[in-house]
Amino acid sequence: VQLQASGGGLVQAGGSLRLSCVASGGTFSGYSVGWFRQAPGKEREFVAGIRWPGSQSVTDSLKGRFTISRDLSKNTVYLQMNSLKPDDTAVYYCAVGSRIIYSQLAVPSSYEHWGQGTQVTVSS
Question: Which of 7, 55, 66, 107 is deepest in the core (most CB within 10 A)?
């Protein structure tokens, strides 16, 4: 399966963006999908994940601002990001994996396939 992340861009602080992750050559049905981000000079960090059939997780520091959702009819997973801050600036990646238990959603090595990333830049 190939993943295509899109929706990034330049936004002012306080604004919103919705990232999309589309699977081609496969389907998200039966799989867990995660969003991670990596800022320059920093390690890749977990943002949010959604398991099959539906339990979700958002990292504590982003709860209330970021939400993850899935539209199986469009084979797409979304990351809605509100009240964006300059610290949210990073490349955002989506990833997919099978048989990921809830406690492992935040672990990058749990995922088998990664998208190419989409840049999000938040200006102050």
Answer: 66
CA–CA distance, 105 with 41 (Å, rounded to integer) = 23
Evaluate if residue 112 carries a pLDDT over 90.
yes
> Can you tell me which residue has the tokens 């990596």?
38
Strand pairing of 9-12 and 118-123? parallel
3-class secondary-structure state, position 110? helix
What is the C-alpha separation between 106 and 91, in angstroms, rounded?
A: 17
pLDDT of res. 78: 97
DSSP state of 92: E
Angle, CA 99 vertex, CA 58 and CA 64 arms, to 5°: 5
User: Are 10 and 21 in contact, with CB atoms under 8 Å apart?
Assistant: no
Query: Contact 21/117 with Cβ under 8 angstroms?
Result: no
Dist CA 34 CA 54 (whole Å):
12
With vertex at residue 122, the alpha carbon angle to CA 95 and CA 4, rounded to the nearest 5 degrees, is 25
